[in-house]
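queue> holo job accepted (D-malate)
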Amino acid sequence: METKIKDISVFTTGENETRSIVFVHGFPFDHRMWDSQVAVLSKEYKCVTYDIRGLGQSPESDGQYTMESFVDDLENVMNGLGLVKPVLCGLSMGGYISLRAVERMEDKLSALILCDTKSTADDDQGKLKRAAGIKTINKDGSEKFVEQFVPNCFSESFMKENNAGYLKVLNRSKQNGAVGIKGCLLAMAGRTDTTAYLSKISIPTLIICGKEDKLTPPEVMKPMADQIKNSKFVVIENAGHMAPIEKAEVVTSSIQEFLQEKI
Ligand code: MLT
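queue> job finished
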């Protein structure tokens, strides 16, 4: 089912009214990055995906986003659907949103799944990279930026061996407009560091990391897992930053196993 909640495009699959998972996608992608997980997990859980403001089918609005406004949108989705203690699963930028959401409202969640993400904020070099991205968009357009950014999100082997799958995601990402992409870049550059909260997280947490992730590699994610008391760390072989697409079945079974064990 497709619905609008405070103008955010939201998609629900699965009948279960008591157990739900909310998936938050990465940048500059959209809710369809979770299609493989939803196809399987919706047999047991109500699966909720949505497009982050500025991306996919959600409106660009004024393009002035913050990590706080992204969490507000997430909270509106959860409240609008009447979800009771959903599992929250976010990848990369979706992970930044999820980590801040846990810091703000852990009592409203039953478990956390963090895929290919980090708790630290952008350092100066990271902020300058965001600024350079905005400059590229202003000079050469958002498609150019997407063409430069997206290859870093996949392992070399996936791009070679599943080139059609890779191009599908790349072409979808190019549909996103400049205002939305620039707004997300600024929101990420301005996000807070959530590392201090990791040791306070008490809900069960699964940390998933593609072994070949160039943006948030295992050496960045393992220390995060070490700081979260009730956590499980899973490395996905032969996958990059987009592990849920690159190794969809392995990621889905890791999630399934974790939820069966902990929820
Ligand atoms: C993402 O996949 O969401 C981005 O790589 C996050 C980022 O640029 O920090």
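queue> The chain has a mean pLDDT of 98.
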